[in-house]
User: What shape does this take?
Amino acid sequence: MKKIADAGLLIAFLDRNDKYHGWADGVFRAESPPFYTAEPILAEVSAVLGSPDSVLRMIESGDLVVRLDLQTEVFAIRSLAWKYRDQPMDLGDACCVRLAELLGGSVVYTVDKSDFLLYRKNGRQPVPCIFPD
Assistant: This one.
């Protein structure tokens, strides 16, 4: 199974004060790397944490793999954002859904349960997700 990391998982893992830290820490202890992600997600995490150092170290160690080329996938990403414009879908969520479309047998680790229960990949398929309890 391929694991996709949304911003919420990474923020919770890297910020010990985050309310989902225990869940995220458990995910990283139970699941072996790599976790696939996208540059917009990493930018969001870095902005929230105030520094890119932690996410860059995770990339260097191989725990995170940037797997989405935004330039190549721009049409598909824009289509997803347009489809969910009433929510609205942010860029990181669109990247996660697109990664789920591209990586067969994948699951998204996210804290955004209300959003990801609405999103669909490949038109009408639910996006497989793991949420905190």
User: Anything to note?
Assistant: The longest helix spans residues 70-83. The helical segments are 7-14, 21-30, 39-49, 53-61, 70-83, 91-102, 113-116.
